[in-house]
Every structure is written in structure tokens, then in C-alpha cells.
Amino acid sequence: WCGSLLAALVSPRMADLRVDFGLLLEPLGFIKVLEWIFSIFAFATCGGFQGETTLLVSCKGVVNKTVTAAFAYPFRLNTVVFSAPDPKRCGGTWTDVYLVGNFSSSAQFFVTLAVLVFLYCITALVVYIGYKHVYQQNSKFPLTDFAITVITAFLWLVSTFAWAKALADIKVSTGASIIPGIESCKAPGTTCRFASVTSMGTLNVSVVFGLLNMVLWGGNVWFVYKDTNLRNQSNRISQSP
């Protein structure tokens, strides 16, 4: 698409700019605007998240000391360490405690797709609004747009479900279930209690926007398909004796 677009931009036909915002009221343009907006919410709600999980630790000379582990996108939790309860590290019984899991691949896949979709939607809207005549006259544009729409709908499906699974694991890895796996909390005279974890409501919202993007792109397949010569070919075949 980008190669075809750049080739067309330098052609004499593309110099004939014909701005028509009326296309935004048609399904092809209106859905593209929604896809653009929803992609922003998808990468903003996931990529901008910052949180922390907190424990209350009691050990030698320390009573209910708050220790925290701050985590954020891209959720490489295995690099996040809890702060020591005190300078003496509980009389030497406290060792560095890391969270478990690396969920960066799913998170980055989801955010990267959202960013690429954001950029693609801007490019598509420029073509739809300013160069619709070229889009309609050159059959390669609708075909490329159709192929990208199908692929993007599939990628939203894969990335959203992968991210939803990763989010469920992140909640487990930062919740109360982490305490039994902390060896330092098993030392004689040391007790650990789970205190809190940052609400992940925005991450839940990111999954919702992933699903909405998947539905939008899946539904948009039909509207893009109508502009391709594939539909005309199928009509000719069905009408032939």
C-alpha cells in the first residue's frame, strides 16, 4: 500500500487534489475514522500504564514495613524487584525478590499493531478524502486496501487474545498469590502479607478496544471489498450462462 501510494503521489494525477469531506459520512470513511480513534485508545491505555504491587513485611527489627515493586509497559516483570524492608535487609535474611514473568511480546505486539493501524488510517483517510478519484480509477488501490483490511482484522484477533491472556497472567503475577513463592518470606521470624496492587482497569479497557477494533476491521472488509474489481468479477461470473 505504502509503495503504491508513494508511486501515485508523484504521478500527475495525484497533483489534482479534490478534497471531499463528504466521504466521511459514508461507511468507508466513517469506519476508518472510528478505526483511527479506537487505535489511539488501544495503544494509549496499554502503553501508558504504570503500577505497583505492595507487601507488608515483618522481620528482625522491622514491623509491617511496606515494600513495593513498580511495573509498567512492556511488563517485563522478571526485571522488577521488591525494595528491601530496611537497610540491614532483615538481618541478612532478605534477598532480592523479583516478580515472575515476561509479557513484553504480547504487550508490544498489541501496541505496535495499534500504532501501525493509527498511521495507516491517517494515510487511508488522506487518500479517501483528497484522492478518491485516483483510488477508484486505479484497481490496485482498492485491492491493496482490501488485503490490508483482511490481514489487519486477523492481526487484531490474534493480538487482542494474546494480550488478554498476558493480562490475566500479569494479574496473577502481581497479586496475593506471589507470597508463597517468595523465599525470603519463609525465613524464620519473617512474615509477609499482601497489601495492594494498582487497579488494572485501564488495561481491561485496552482489551475492550482491541475487541472493538477487531469487530470494526472485520466489518470494514465488506465495504472495502465493494470497491474492488473482485466484486465485479464475481457478479459477471454469476450472471454468465
How is the secondary structure organized here?
Elements: H1 2-9, H2 27-47, E1 50-59, E2 62-72, H3 104-130, H4 132-137, H5 140-173, E3 191-197, H6 201-225, H7 229-239
Antiparallel strand pairs: 1-2, 1-3
Helix pairs in contact: 2-3, 2-6, 3-5, 5-6
What value does the average pLDDT take? 85
- Helix tally equals 7
Structural class: mainly alpha
The secondary-structure element order is HHEEHHHEHH
Which runs of at least 5 residues are low in confidence (pLDDT < 50)?
233-241
Task: Let me know the number of strands.
Answer: 3
| Strand order across the largest sheet | 2-1-3
Question: Whole-number radius of gyration?
Answer: 26 Å
Q: Oligomerization state of this entry? A: single chain
Task: Report the sheet-strand fraction.
Answer: 5-15%
Distance, first to last CA: 36 Å
> What is the share of helical residues?
40-55%
Give the overall shape, derived from the CA principal axes. rod-shaped
Structural domain count: 1
Quick one: biggest sheet? Answer: 3 strands, antiparallel
